[in-house]
Design brief:
Elements lengths: L1 H14 L19 H38 L2 H5 L13 H31 L4 H13 L4 H16 L4 H25 L3 H9 L4 H29 L3 H6 L8 E2 L2 E2 L8 H9 L4 H30 L6
Antiparallel strand pairs: 1-2
Helix pairs in contact: 2-12, 4-7, 4-9, 5-7, 6-7, 7-9, 8-9, 9-12, 11-12
């Protein structure tokens, strides 16, 4: 019996088709004499060259920021007030605090509006109203930032009678809401349908399903959109010129933050100091630009980290 088994196996192996039979490996060798290989080599080289050319301006700006701004960056620059003309030293500590407060209030305004709108769009059936809201959000992603400043100027500054951090936050919130709506809607739609069906099957209401299943699952994607919106808003200058203006003083008044007064921000400080004929102010503008780039880079890295954790649709 063993001999018969071995004979049968040998016959099956001999009958097996060689997958490489008739294949000429010499034809698979790369050769620059072949037209297809030449075209592939040329296009690969062009892509590499264009990538390098695209990276040159980026790394040039980063190198300039580090070289010019890093030399002026110090603990004093981060914690003191802007200097007067012809005055040496100083810093932009109030601009850092002002930027964080303005962007923080903008987040508090835009996140509830954006997330609730995204829930409605993700859960609603096809309707003209939902399509109109979604289309408007997509259009507003390319909304010129200066128009957001003009809107906040007319709605807040003209109403309250003065420039303020609150007006600047409203202008930035207008720019942040469309990004949050679109990214949050996509994140909610990417939640597996079986999770929603399981919750409904267990007797959960529509509201309970949204707040206890969909939103917790979609949180990484929602936070990604929030951080991307924050990164865009932190670097805006035109809206803040129309709304928050600028201040050479701290935002604190009588031990608390006075949000209804002109407020300094890094973007406006860079705009103001970069055009001054005083070397000290120009150096501070470079240092403030480096700090602003680091803040935006941090927000983008946080967004990328959260995006990598987002649950993908199977």
């Amino acid at each position: 019996m063993p001999n018969n088994t071995q004979t049968a196996n040998a016959e099956r192996e001999s009958d097996a088709v060689d997958p490489f039979a008739g294949l000429d490996f010499g034809q698979l060798e790369r050769s620059l004499r072949r037209p297809r290989t030449l075209i592939d080599f040329f296009l690969s080289g062009m892509v590499a060259l264009m990538t390098i050319l695209a990276l040159i301006p980026l790394f040039s700006v980063l190198w300039k920021l580090i070289a010019r701004g890093g030399s002026k960056l110090s603990a004093t620059a981060l914690t003191t007030l802007p200097p007067a003309p012809l005055e040496q030293g100083g810093g932009f500590g109030n601009a850092i605090i002002g930027t964080l407060i303005i962007v923080g209030i903008a987040v508090a305004i835009s996140v509830p509006v954006g997330v609730l709108t995204a829930i409605y769009l993700a859960q609603s059936k096809q309707s003209r109203f939902a399509d109109g809201v979604r289309f408007s959000a997509k259009v507003l992603t390319g909304f010129p930032s200066i128009l957001a400043g003009v809107f906040a100027y007319g709605a807040i500054v003209m109403t309250t009678g003065g420039f303020s951090a609150l007006a600047g936050s409203v202008a930035l919130a207008v720019l942040m809401i469309p990004t949050i709506i679109l990214t949050a809607e996509d994140a909610i739609r990417m939640v597996p349908s079986r999770m929603k069906e399981a919750a409904i099957g267990m007797g959960a209401t529509q509201t309970q399903t949204v707040w206890m299943v969909l939103l917790p699952t979609a949180i990484p994607g929602i936070l990604t959109g929030v951080m991307l919106a924050v990164a865009r808003a932190a670097g805006e200058t035109a809206p803040l010129i129309f709304t928050a203006l600028f201040s050479n003083y701290w935002l604190w008044s009588n031990g608390r933050a006075d949000l209804m007064q002109p407020t300094a921000s890094l973007a406006v400080l860079i705009y103001n100091f970069a055009g001054m004929p005083f070397q000290n102010q120009v150096d501070l503008a470079w240092a403030a630009a480096l700090v602003l780039v680091l803040l935006v880079l941090t927000a983008n890295l946080i967004g990328q980290s959260l995006s990598s954790r987002q649950i993908q649709q199977p």
